[in-house]
Design goal:
Layout: E1 8-17, E2 22-32, E3 40-41, E4 48-61, H1 64-67, H2 69-79, E5 84-88, E6 93-96, E7 100-101, E8 107-108, E9 114-117, E10 121-122
Parallel strand pairs: 4-9
Antiparallel strand pairs: 1-2, 1-5, 2-4, 3-4, 5-10, 6-9, 7-8
Length: about 140
């Protein structure tokens, strides 16, 4: 898994408003220093690496995140295929992988974790989580 539960930077590609929550598709990535074909050099450490990417579909945006979903949809419409980079604050993401009973009464586990996002910030420097001004996020911080 390449999604950290600290502060995350992800790129949103699809949003579906479901009424009380939204289903969002986004991607994340991390530096992989053990990749077979590293193609970049980390300026801080001098080590070679490649990015390992993950795609996350059906992430539920609820609470404060759902309250800001219209601004995300507007940004996504303007951005087109390249998607919209957002940041998810530390602690604003949860993963659930609980068992359930299928129609025959057999205990099953979901193939994918159910991920829920409670808050996010647009990456253009606009702080959508509070009225405080936030620092400008450089597009170079996003590896994708």
């Amino acid at each position: 898994m390449s999604l950290r539960y600290g502060k995350n930077y992800v790129r949103v590609f699809k949003v579906e408003n479901k009424g009380k929550y939204a289903e969002v598709q986004f991607s994340s990535s991390r530096k992989d220093y053990y990749a077979e074909t590293p193609d970049r050099i980390d300026e801080k450490t001098g080590r070679k690496f490649a990015y390992a990417s993950s795609s996350w579909g059906f992430v539920r945006f609820v609470g404060d995140a759902f309250g800001k979903i219209d601004s995300l949809i507007e940004s996504l419409d303007a951005a087109g295929e390249k998607g919209v980079p957002i940041s998810i604050p530390e602690g604003a993401m949860s993963e659930k992988r609980e068992s359930y009973n299928d129609k025959d009464g057999n205990r099953q586990w979901p193939k994918n974790p159910q991920m829920t996002c409670f808050n996010f910030e647009l990456s253009d420097g606009q702080d959508t989580a509070s009225s405080k001004a936030s620092a400008q996020v450089d597009e170079d911080e996003f590896p994708f």
